[in-house]
Amino acid sequence: MLKALVAVAIATPFAVGAAVADPGPVEQAVCAFTDPAINESSGLVVRDDTMLTVNDSGDTARVFLVDRDDCSTTSQVAYPGGARDVEAIAPAARGERAVWVADIGDNRHARHDLVVVRVPFDGSATERYPVSWQGGPQDAETLMVHPVTGRLYTVTKGVLGGQVLRGPATLDQGGNVFKPVGETRGLITDGAFFPDGKHFLLRNYDTAYLYDTAAMTSLGDFDLPSQQQGEGLAIGPDGRIYLSSEGVHAPVLRIRLPAGLQQALDGDATAEGDASKEPEEDASAGPGSDRVTDGHSPDQSSDQSSEEDSDPDPWPWIIGGMFGLGAVVVLLRALRPR
């Protein structure tokens, strides 16, 4: 009995803290992929009535078009040139009926044959462009296309952190070097721009990070719902967030931004500004650079503000601790010899 009472007293602050803390975004299962051929969804695009996805390494060069209501495969679009390690898919610029597919997976940091392919929906010819990263080969699983300018971005998948790299304004068949414009957290598996292009969202296996495009600074992060191996992320025309995962018959989840981040997004959207404004290239940005650190300016006050925005609220745990302390005191008094 005594051990049980002690266990309850110890657990009380954690239970109270968890009960009053922000539970994070609530997911809604849209549907689950019905096609067993979609077994390693590593990227996702959401259009008005269609979702598009691609498989990870080992599949042929194809894009699956999926019904947005029931996740059944409605068609496939094959593209020439083969596929080695396709890791991402992104919608083309606003108004274009096409997607970009990125064959950029490079776990061993040794590939020199990375490509991005523009795959149109109207039957016109695909466009295939070789790409590389300034500084040498790196693994990457993310492709984003700015909805206004059409410029391509990727994010390297470092364990402790990655770089946001931007492609040339105009792609060339002879080669295209993507250059660093910012830094991110580690193990990023996908990302997408919001419809106005002023912000983008990145994800890894359990967390999402919201960024300001022009300043390349982080506005905060939040936990993602549990998935088998969550890798894909898309933002629909209405700004809702969609998540896909590897695995046969994996569900597609839909979530909203947490209220605080949505307010920041709405506030920036109403402010005057050019949606096509993008960050300036910084060839020196890299894993040792102090120009941008985890998406923040090196200015100390800015770091403190960012940490306050992204760190969890301590008050639920303080309140829980007070309850727990009170429970321990009552327990000790009850057990005191009479």
Tell me about this structure:
The protein folds into two domains: 1-21 and 312-338; 25-296, Neuraminidase, CATH 2.120.10. Helix 1 (2-20) packs antiparallel against helix 4 (315-335). 19% of the residues lie in helices and 34% in strands. A hairpin with a 5-residue loop joins strand 14 and strand 15 (199-203). It has four helices and 20 strands. The radius of gyration is 23 Å and the shape is globular. Strands 6-7-8-9-13-12-11-10 form an eight-stranded mixed β-sheet, with no helix packed on it. The protein has 338 residues and is α+β, with helices and mostly antiparallel strands. The two termini are 18 Å apart.
Secondary-structure map:
Elements (H helix, E strand, L loop, with lengths): L1 H19 L7 E5 L8 E6 L3 E6 L6 E6 L5 E6 L9 E4 L6 E6 L11 E6 L6 E7 L6 E6 L6 E5 L5 E5 L9 E9 L5 E4 L5 E5 L3 E6 L4 E7 L6 E6 L5 E5 L5 E5 L3 H12 L29 H11 L4 H21 L3
Helix pairs in contact: 1-4
SS field, number of helical segments: 4
The strand order across the widest sheet is 6-7-8-9-13-12-11-10
Oligomerization: single chain
> What's the CATH class label of the largest domain?
Mainly Beta
End-to-end Cα distance: 18 Å
The count of β-strands is 20
Outline the low-pLDDT stretches.
1-22, 283-317, 328-332
How many domains is the backbone divided into? Answer: 2
Q: What share of the residues does DSSP label as strand, in percent?
A: 25-35%
